[in-house]
Amino acid sequence: MFLSVLDLFKVGVGPSSSHTMGPMVAAARFLDALRAAPFTAQGLRASLHGSLAFTGVGHATDRAVILGLAGFRPETYDAEAAENTLARIRDTGQIDAPGLGTLRFDPKSDLVFDYDHPLPGHANGMVVMATDAQGDVILRETYYSIGGGFVMTEDELAAGRDTDDGPPVPYPFKSAAQMLDMAKASGLSIAQMKRANEISRIGPARLDEGIARVWQVMNDCIDRGLENDGILPGGLNVRRRARAIHEKLLAERGMNLTAPHVINDWMSTYAMAVNEENAAGGQVVTAPTNGAAGVVPAVIRYWLDHVPGASAARMDEFLLTAAAIGGLVKYNASISGAEAGCQAEVGSASAMAAAGLCAVLGGTPEQIENAAEIALEHHLGMTCDPVKGLVQVPCIERNGLGAIKAVSAASLALRGDGQHFVPLDAAIETMRQVGADMHEKYKETSLGGLAVNIPNC
């Protein structure tokens, strides 16, 4: 099992990795298939199913699909160009698909929100079709957005979870137990094993450049969130708060009047800054998803700005360790809120951040595994119930609390010797089981929880 750190931490666009980035990627993939087809299409259609239908408008899924069919991709997204393209498509009922010419596509009739027919493979399903001059379907593909911006076709999903067909890696751990055994046998840290795996696939230069870019985008996102204020889009009239809180914290610095627990406000503010940017459709990094994008960068920023001896030179150690844990969660359970609730998003992110922080604070592999387990265990059962389908309430604050839990988990683990009662593998399997048992209305459909118990406008 191999999942690159650069796949888990992907640069993209808000507000959702599974509901915005994934559908955009799927639509772009369909264009690739259409270019390779031995016929010429005249039109396009698409339908959204399951969670993509129920919360699609709030997550900008419709916009993402249209833009994907127009050739946009998350990693190179240009907001101004996107708005101009959307306006042109709505006015003309046509899409200028790169390499395919002008195709018929009227968003009002050719993009369907199908609330009644969920697809069997995953809660986030969509179908994209190409039509001929008579409007008959000549190419059809089903895609599933499985969380974190990852997309699989129906056939790929049916082939199984382990679809990695690349060359073998030096340390192919598929569980935390295997990871610890390999660390003990090799004498290497988790980050060192993960780095060896990465280099065997993508080489050291691409790895180092990619990690540097990931942190740069994360840090820039925090800074933008701390500078911007106003009302977030979507109709809930949620105010940005990160800038005002940050200004108060800066004003209080050095006054010796604040309680020690105020450090939690710094962590929360960093996380909220990221998720306010995400909610506004800004550039973020999946960590492992957009909805949980604030946890890992908030803990890194806390470490760099508030922990003596911290150094950005060890960023690769933090992110590689976090990615190792995230890969285990994704492989053995899920990072998708639509599949397993927010325990799979903020819970996974908190476990990843706890592991990364524990590593750079000198933790052993056993302590790192313990830190990840503590963080994940105390998110078990958390629902995904975004009000009005927007990644705002409770998502923004929830990232702040996820960051606080991550730091606490790392600190507790470092106080011990790595021996603990519940293995990380057991916590991951429990999360998977809880997600499977969780009622659909609590899994990113906005049909239960907070989404139906407070006003939506």
Give the topology, please.
Layout: H1 5-8, E1 11-13, H2 17-36, E2 43-50, H3 51-54, H4 61-69, H5 79-92, E3 94-97, E4 101-104, H6 107-110, E5 111-114, E6 124-131, E7 137-147, E8 150-153, H7 154-158, H8 176-186, H9 190-227, H10 242-252, H11 263-279, E9 283-285, H12 295-306, H13 315-332, H14 337-340, H15 346-360, H16 365-377, H17 395-414, H18 424-437, H19 450-453
Helix pairs in contact: 2-4, 9-11, 9-13, 10-11, 11-12, 11-17, 12-15, 12-17, 13-15, 15-16, 15-17, 16-17, 16-18
Note down, in words, how this protein is organized.
By secondary structure, the chain is an alpha+beta fold. It folds into 2 domains: about 15-160, 60s Ribosomal Protein L30, Chain: A; about 175-455, 2-methylcitrate dehydratase PrpD (Orthogonal Bundle). It is built from 19 helices and 9 strands. It has helices at about 5-10, 15-35, 50-55, 60-70, 80-90, 105-110, 155-160, 175-185, 190-225, 240-250, 265-280, 295-305, 315-330, 335-340, 345-360, 365-375, 395-415, 425-435, 450-455; strands spanning about 10-15, 45-50, 95, 100-105, 110-115, 125-130, 135-145, 150-155, 285. The strands form 3 sheets. A 5-stranded mixed sheet has the order 5-2-6-7-8. The longest helix is centred in the middle third of the chain and has 38 residues, at about 190-225. The radius of gyration is 22 Å and the shape is globular.
